[in-house]
Amino acid sequence: MGDYFDTVVDVDATAEDAPRLAAEVLSWLVAEGIVEPEPSAPAFDIEGDGYPPGPQCGKAFRGDPDRALGLSLHVGRTVFDAGQGDPEAVTCPHCSARVELMDEDRDLDDEAWGLFAEAVQTWAGSEDPSPVRCPSCGTSAPVHRWIWADDHFAFGHLGFVFWNWDALRPDFVAELTRRLGGHRTVELEGKL
């Protein structure tokens, strides 16, 4: 069966802005009754602060509010992923060439994935990880600037992970994005 999560990542927030933005969004979520004001141990995600669902958590998603487990809040350089499965493809931010990461058997293509694997693994722990060179145009770009076709990865300093909240409502995600100063956000849906 498993547990599901929906992550909203602010990919524009800087390391300096992330704590302030997190506090502002958290204040809004508490004021709306979407999460409780006091953190508790998160259900799965021991890296983030965990906030239980509030009495109005149903404002944020479609589905059964009794299934919602809580919100994990991440502040700091993080590689967010979709959990199970592998990334399918990635697009160069310069020439828009698509790099297929799966072979015909739907397994990771070792050669193609090899271009990105180290950069993905080191992004969270390094201020300046090695850029990835596009096999099509030859231009290099940091891994967080590449466009992941299936939103398997998002790279950022601020993320909100909603555990078992079903699909987040588009109007909720739009308001969350507005409260992040209109920053670009990426939404990842995943399963453990």
What does this entry look like structurally?
This protein is of the alpha+beta class and 192 residues long. Helices cover 19% and strands 27% of the residues. It has helices at 18-31, 110-114, 117-123, 170-179, and strands at residues 4-10, 49-51, 70-81, 89-91, 98-100, 132-133, 140-141, 147-148, 153-163, 185-191. The chain starts with a strand and ends with a strand. The model has no long low-confidence stretch (mean pLDDT 88).
Sum up the structure in keywords.
single chain; 192 residues; alpha+beta; 5-stranded antiparallel β-sheet; 3-stranded antiparallel β-sheet; 4 helices; 10 strands; 19% helix; globular
- pLDDT averaged over residues: 88
Question: Sheet bearing the most strands, described?
Answer: 5 strands, antiparallel
Low-confidence stretches: none
Strand content: 25-35%
Query: Count of helices?
Result: 4
How many β strands by DSSP? 10
Please give the order of strands in the largest beta sheet.
Answer: 2-3-9-1-10
Classify the helix fraction into a percent range: 10-25%
Order of helices and strands: EHEEEEHHEEEEHE
Report the end-to-end length measured between terminal Cα atoms: 9 Å
Rg: 17 Å
Structural class: alpha+beta
Overall form: globular
Question: What's the layout of helices and strands?
Answer:
Elements: E1 4-10, H1 18-31, E2 49-51, E3 70-81, E4 89-91, E5 98-100, H2 110-114, H3 117-123, E6 132-133, E7 140-141, E8 147-148, E9 153-163, H4 170-179, E10 185-191
Antiparallel strand pairs: 1-9, 1-10, 2-3, 3-9, 4-5, 4-8, 6-7
